[in-house]
């Protein structure tokens, strides 16, 4: 029996060509399949891998971006400052005013792209290193008070762009109670519209200073590693792997990148690959950080990390757990300064180590002054806290520079309670400061211990007259000068503290060594930077009160009893003008 449907079908088939029917059927199937694919693509958020490989979330359409951001970004002049180049501001008056106000060229910063390119300044040896695929992920902590927004965001973008996402746990921004409108209003909006979700802003209600702000950041951070950066930095290609690798290999190791300079006047990025010889950190007895050449035995490779006695302070990484295990930072330290030597001494003494990692490069704008409030003498007071806890009996050499801070002398300056910090030494069984000096920084000159005689040097004919550097001494900066005389001070301070060293017979202070200098016929005692090697030119003899220059055979003579005169070198004649008494003699 034939059904009605089959009858219609047979009639149609009879009328239409069978081939045409087949064509229609194929077309229908094709359209269906295309529609299906489109539907699937629309309902699927996309392959997960693509999302992972990009650290940025663009959640908003350009037309949704608020005017504050549009305005802020309008200042950027495309192309300016690319490849780390500097830009010249033609209007010199405007430039001066800007630098005076912000401590660096803010105009240049505002015009340069937040994502500018930088040169890859790494040493060739560094580029060849294969780092592990899995490294501890880092919380990058950036603290700031009234930082210029473009500079701060360039720091953030440099980290986002040049850190593989798997190594960047988060960026923690700590606003140390800024009151710039840009920071208080534009930054949070920028964060919401332009930055990925792992950039976190943490705001402090009251300015606590850089130590407190860093601690606050470290406490909220949850990465296995933490890396601190100043808020005016730019991280370069491959910056993070060398740091994380060293933290992974040795979790009690604090790591410091090569700190390249970004010009405060033009914002030009100046980086140097470094070589076999590099600089590491030292310190002055007055409690300041210095750079010193790293002493190596000739087998060092340019990519090798170099142990360092101290750190500059601003840029370093650590295993988070280790950082807190040894006491984080000293919460009693206010404002700015001193925390870097405190952390350095503590790390080494409490079974850690520190090294400069030359394959990691980060630029930093070095500024001539601090464009923010700092409590009076916070560096000095923080350093006194540090000296009390971490310098043991060697704190005497710090107080020689800062008698005003000595605790034994009644003073209105209160360094606060240090008991919890002292406790760390017991709890962790930390080694002594002497161990640190002997082992980590054996080249540090110890003014008293390493001398035959030291202290004030008083003239026998004019007993009121002492050797004095007449405030001409620039310490580690090694600026040479003629040594002078001045009425002896009541207490031994650094201007009159001189030593006759035991191993090289140098007449010296911390950095400067005496030699003779013929100044147009009158021979003076010239102070020059002490050398590593023994030199006849800087050797002296102390015989029966006479200070005799070995090379010339001449004696140091007080020309008269006037304050501020320069000492002279003259033929030894046994008179009292050439006789001197050292305040202390070592057996
Ligand atoms: C150096 C260090 C710096 C710090 C300092 C004190 C480098 C490159 N820089 O001075 O990191 O260790 O020595 O020893 O090693 N800040 C606040 N709140 C304040 C004051 C400062 O958050 O009350 C921020 C500031 O915005 C900046 C950071 O702390 O991001 C360091 O201050 P700086 O850049 O003025 O110090 P700097 O580089 O002269
Ligand atoms: Mn800085």
UniProtKB/TrEMBL annotation:
InterPro entries in UniProt: GalNAc-T, Glyco_trans_2-like, Nucleotide-diphossugar_trans, Ricin_B-like_lectins, Ricin_B_lectin
Protein name, UniProt field: Polypeptide N-acetylgalactosaminyltransferase
Pfam annotation, one family: Ricin_B_lectin
Top-level EC class: transferase
Cofactor(s), names only, from the UniProt record: Mn(2+)
Record localization: Golgi apparatus membrane
Keyword Transmembrane attributed: yes
Entry GO MF terms: carbohydrate binding; metal ion binding; polypeptide N-acetylgalactosaminyltransferase activity
Pathway entry: Protein modification; protein glycosylation
Keywords noted in UniProt: Disulfide bond, Glycosyltransferase, Golgi apparatus, Lectin, Manganese, Membrane, Metal-binding, Signal-anchor, Transferase, Transmembrane, Transmembrane helix
Ranges of residues in domain Ricin B lectin: 454-583
Record-annotated membrane-spanning stretches: 20-41
UniProt membrane topology term: Single-pass type II membrane protein
GO cellular component assignments: Golgi membrane
Family listed: Belongs to the glycosyltransferase 2 family. GalNAc-T subfamily.
One BP term from GO: protein O-linked glycosylation
EC number, UniProt record: 2.4.1.-
Coiled coil residues, start to end: none
Keyword Nucleus: no
Principal location class: Golgi
């Amino acid at each position: 029996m034939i059904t009605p449907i089959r009858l219609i079908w047979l009639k149609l088939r009879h009328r239409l060509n069978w081939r045409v029917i087949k064509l229609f059927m194929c077309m229908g199937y094709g359209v269906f399949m295309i529609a299906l694919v489109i539907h699937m693509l629309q309902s699927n958020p996309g392959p997960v891998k693509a999302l992972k490989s990009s650290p940025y979330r663009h959640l908003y359409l350009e037309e949704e971006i608020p005017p504050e951001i549009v305005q802020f970004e309008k200042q950027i002049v495309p192309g300016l400052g690319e490849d780390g180049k500097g830009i010249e501001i033609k209007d010199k008056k405007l430039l001066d005013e800007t630098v005076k106000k912000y401590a660096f060229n803010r105009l240049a910063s505002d015009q340069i792209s937040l994502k500018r390119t930088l040169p890859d300044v790494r040493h060739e040896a560094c580029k060849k290193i294969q780092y592990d695929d899995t490294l501890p992920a880092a919380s990058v902590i950036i603290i700031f008070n009234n930082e210029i927004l473009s500079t701060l965001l360039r720091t953030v973008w440099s980290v986002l762009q040049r850190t593989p996402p798997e190594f960047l746990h988060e960026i923690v921004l700590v606003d140390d109670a800024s009151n710039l409108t840009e920071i208080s209003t534009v930054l949070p909006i920028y964060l919401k519209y332009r930055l990925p979700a792992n950039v976190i802003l943490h705001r402090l209600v009251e300015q606590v200073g850089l130590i407190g702000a860093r601690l606050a950041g470290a406490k909220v951070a949850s990465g296995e590693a933490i890396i601190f950066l100043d808020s005016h930095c730019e991280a370069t290609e491959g910056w993070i792997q060398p740091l994380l690798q060293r933290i992974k290999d040795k979790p009690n190791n604090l790591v410091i990148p090569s700190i390249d300079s970004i010009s405060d006047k033009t914002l030009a990025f100046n980086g140097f690959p470094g070589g076999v010889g590099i600089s590491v950190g030292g310190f002055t007895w007055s409690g300041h950080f210095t750079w010193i050449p790293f002493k190596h035995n000739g087998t060092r490779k340019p990519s090798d990390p170099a142990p360092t006695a101290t750190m500059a302070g601003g840029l370093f990484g650590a295993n988070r757990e280790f950082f807190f295990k040894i006491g984080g930072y000293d919460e009693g330290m206010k404002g700015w300064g001193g925390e870097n030597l405190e952390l350095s001494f503590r790390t080494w003494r409490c079974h850690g180590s520190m090294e400069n990692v030359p394959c990691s490069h980060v630029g930093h704008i070095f500024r001539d002054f601090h464009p923010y409030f700092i409590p009076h003498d916070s560096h000095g007071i923080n350093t006194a806290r540090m000296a009390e806890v971490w310098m043991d009996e060697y704190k005497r050499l710090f107080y020689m520079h800062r008698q005003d801070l000595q605790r034994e002398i009644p003073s209105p300056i209160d360094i606060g309670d240090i008991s919890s910090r002292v406790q760390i030494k017991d709890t962790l069984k930390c080694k002594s400061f002497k161990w640190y000096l002997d082992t980590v920084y054996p080249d540090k000159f110890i003014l008293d211990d390493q001398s035959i005689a030291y202290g004030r040097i008083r003239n026998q004919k004019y007993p009121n007259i002492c050797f004095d550097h007449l405030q001409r001494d620039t310490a580690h900066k090694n600026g040479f000068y003629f040594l002078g005389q001045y009425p002896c001070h009541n207490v031994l301070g650094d201007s009159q503290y001189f030593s006759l060293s035991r191993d090289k017979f140098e007449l010296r202070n911390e950095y400067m060594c005496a030699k003779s200098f013929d100044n147009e016929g009158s021979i003076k005692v010239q102070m020059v930077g002490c050398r590593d090697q023994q030199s006849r030119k800087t050797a002296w003899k102390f015989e029966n009160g006479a200070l005799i220059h070995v090379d010339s055979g001449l004696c140091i003579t007080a020309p008269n009893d006037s304050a501020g005169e320069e000492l002279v070198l003259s033929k030894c004649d046994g008179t009292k003008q050439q006789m001197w008494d050292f305040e202390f003699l070592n057996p």
